[in-house]
Amino acid sequence: MPRETRKLQIARTDNMLDIRFSSCLENIDAVCQVVTRYLLNRLSAVPRPDQMFAVNLVMREGMTNAVLHGNKNDITKDVRLSLKIVEEVSICLEIEDQGNGFDWRKHKGSEFPLAADHGRGIPIIKTYFTRYAYNEKGNILFLLMDFTS
Q1: What is the DSSP string of 32-94?
Q2: Which of 11, 73, 96, 124 is the most buried (most CB within 10 A)?
């Protein structure tokens, strides 16, 4: 696919970052790099390495699910990642796709499937983030991480 179709749009302020990108897995690395640099430059207390690992792991999981499952690898559809720094001690993330959503309720209490190659998203999120939720439709993931814990 020509490079022009792989859109990556970034808007930032002092405490907000909004990234829209076309649904291809190659964009996820670039988004993670932008978010990491942004957080390291904007937070007054630099997050610990384990916290940055957790942020990147969960972002990758959410964006990969948005690209593969939400938008079905359709490069003409976008994924949006929005990040907000809250009082220098926590971040709120939203990851949105243009798909039909999914029934997140049936996965909410799921255990970590050690041998499976899928189905690990919610257990990973629960392990590393303070809170998470989905919109009713199931195409927007809301995440909160408190860096003081």
Answers
A1: HHHHHHHHHHH-SSPPPHHHHHHHHHHHHHHHHHIIIIISTT-TTSEEEEEEEEETTTEEEEE
A2: 96
b/e 70-83 (16+ beta carbons within 10 angstroms → b):
bbeeebebbbbbbb
Query: How many domains does one find in the chain?
Result: 1
Instruction: Output phi, psi for 82, to 5 deg.
Output: -120, 135
pLDDT digits (tens, 9 = 90+) for 24-37: 999 999 999 999 99
Range of the domain at 103: 3-146
54-73 pLDDT, tens digit each = 999 999 999 999 999 999 99
The domain that holds 101 is classified in CATH as: 3.30.565.10
